[in-house]
Amino acid sequence: MAEAVDGCVRHGVEAIGLWRQDVAAQGLDETVKLVTDAGLRVSSLCRGGFLTSGDAAALDDNRRAIDEAAALGAPCLVMVVGGLPGVVPAEPLGAVDRDLAGARERVAEALAVLAPYAGERGVRLALEPLHPMYCADRAVLSTLGQALDLAERHPVEQVGVVVDTFHVWWDPQVLEQIARAGERIASYQVCDFLHPLPQDVLLGRGVMGDGVIDFAPLTAAVAAAGYAGDIEVEIFNADVWAADPDEVLARVKARFGELVESA
Amino acid sequence: MAEAVDGCVRHGVEAIGLWRQDVAAQGLDETVKLVTDAGLRVSSLCRGGFLTSGDAAALDDNRRAIDEAAALGAPCLVMVVGGLPGVVPAEPLGAVDRDLAGARERVAEALAVLAPYAGERGVRLALEPLHPMYCADRAVLSTLGQALDLAERHPVEQVGVVVDTFHVWWDPQVLEQIARAGERIASYQVCDFLHPLPQDVLLGRGVMGDGVIDFAPLTAAVAAAGYAGDIEVEIFNADVWAADPDEVLARVKARFGELVESA
CB distance from B110 to chain A under 8 Å? Predict the structure, then answer.
C-alpha cells in the first residue's frame, strides 16, 4: 500500500482505487492516514457484491464494505455481483444452480437492502457489468443496459454503474447505453482487451494500446454523458504485476495521455 | 465423412450439419451422394462469413459457399461474420484495425450483396452471433438482437439467425430476442458452456449437462417462437473429439433427450 501510494505521488497520479484485501492487510485506519497524508483521493473501493446466493452473510459483508468505503472517503463501492451459485472461479465445476434469472433476481433484492444503507453513509454502489465470459463465475450482470435497469430502481446518489472498457467494448449498444447512463456513471475504468486471451481469462487485461480496444469513442461517450470524475486504470496482468512499478506507472501514464486523455 | 454419416444413421440421428472443409476433403458430389444414400437431411452448412475486411475475395468465397449449400440441399449457410481486421485466432496480435463500428458496417454491406444471391439459390444466410469473447477474432456480431437488426433489413427467406446456447445463454435480453426472432430462426444449436474455460476458449463447449447452461428456458423460447427445424448439437471439445464416436453419439443423444427434447 505504501509503495502504491508513493508511486502515485511521484508520478503525479492524483487518485487511487483501493481493494478491500489490501486495505485489510494495511489496516483501515493506517490506509486512511497513508492516502490522506499523501494528498490522494480514493477514487473507489473494490469490491462489494457476490449477492447471488441470497445468504445473509453476504449482506453483512457488503455493509462492512460500505462502512470501509465511507471511512476511506471513497465516493463509490464497486459491486461485482457474483456468478451462478456454486461456481467458483478457476475451480472445477461442482454442484451448480443454473437458474440464471433467479440469480439476477437475488441481486436486485439485495440491492434494495444495501442501497439505502450506502446512501445514508454517502457511498454510492457502483454496479459493474462484467464481460459475459465471467457470467458463470463472477457476475451475472453482463451489460451496461442491464446494470442501468437495476440502478434506475434506486436514487441516483445511491446506485450508479461502472463503465469498464474491457467489459463493455464489444457491446453493440454500448454508446447509447453510456449516453443513457449520464450521471449514473460512478466510475470509468480503462484497460485493454488482450488477444489471444491468457489461460486464466481474468488476466486478459492489458495496458491501453496492447490490445484490441479503440478507446476514443468510448471515452468521448463517457465525457459527453457528463462524467467528470476520476478515470481508473485497472489492469490484471501477470506481466504487468511482475514488471518494475515505476516503469509500469510511466508506461501507463504515457498510454493514458495518448489514448484516453486525448479523447 | 462416411464415419459421421454412418454414426448418425446407426444412432437414429436424422440430420447432419456439415463443415465446408470436410465437404471439400470428401468432394462435394460424393458428399451429396453419401448423405442422400443414407437418407439424412443436411441441417446446415458451416460456414460463410469473414466479411469484415471488405475485400472482394471474401465475397467470392461466400458465393461458393452458398453454391455448395444449395448443392447439399442445406436450408441455410451459417455465417460467422469475422472479427477485427488483422486479428487472427490464436495468433499474437499484429497490426489491427480497431474500428469495430466500421467492421460491423462492412458486414452489413456484404450481406446486401450476398443475401439476394443466396435467396436465388434457395439458401438462407444464418447470421450467428458469437459469444462476446470472440468479438476480436471471430465475429463482431455479438448478440441476437444485433443479428436481428441486420437480418431484418432483408427478406425473411434470405437472412435468418442462429440461436446457439453457448453464445447467447448469458444475454439478459435473450428470451425476448428469441421471441422477436420468430421465423428468422434458421438454426437452433445446443452445447454447454464449460467452467473453467480451457486454454483455447474456442474449445470451451461441452456436452449438455457438463457446463452451466439451463437449456429448458432457451429451448422452450425457441419452440414458442415457432422454430420446428432441426436442432444441431455442435461441440468443439478436445476430449469429445478424442472419445469413441459411438460413445459420444450415445451420450449426446441421452443428454439431448433429458435436457433439450424434454423442454
Answer: no
Closest of A174, A167, A262, A187 to residue A231, by C-alpha: A187
Q: Do B90 and A196 touch (CB under 8 A)?
A: yes
Distance (Å, rounded) from C-alpha A105 to C-alpha B263?
Answer: 23
CATH number of the domain at B144, please.
Answer: 3.20.20.150
From chain B, pick out residues whose CB is under 8 angstroms from the CB of A91: 196
Q: Is A60 helix (H, G, I), strand (E, B) or coil?
A: helix
Mean predicted confidence (pLDDT) in B19-25? 98
Tell me: the pLDDT tens digits for B63-112?
Answer: 999 999 999 999 999 999 999 999 999 999 999 999 999 999 999 999 99
Domains identified in chain A, total number: 1
> For residue range A158-199, what is the model confidence (pLDDT) as tens digits?
999 999 999 999 999 999 999 999 999 999 999 999 999 999
Q: Does B262 fall in a domain?
A: no
Let me know if residue A254 belongs to a domain. no
Is A87's CB within 8 Å of B212's CB?
yes
Q: Containing domain of residue A132, as a range?
A: 2-191+215-238
Q: What is the DSSP string of chain B?
A: -HHHHHHHHHTT--EEEEEHHHHHHH-HHHHHHHHHHHT-EEEEEEEEE--TT--HHHHHHHHHHHHHHHHHT-SEEEEE-B-STT--TTS---S----HHHHHHHHHHHHHHHHHHHHHTT-EEEE-PPPGGGTTTTBS---HHHHHHHHTTS-TTTEEEEEEHHHHTT-TTHHHHHHHHGGGEEEEEE-EE-SSPPSSGGG-EE-TTSSS--HHHHHHHHHHTT--S-EEE----HHHHHS-HHHHHHHHHHHIIIIIIT-
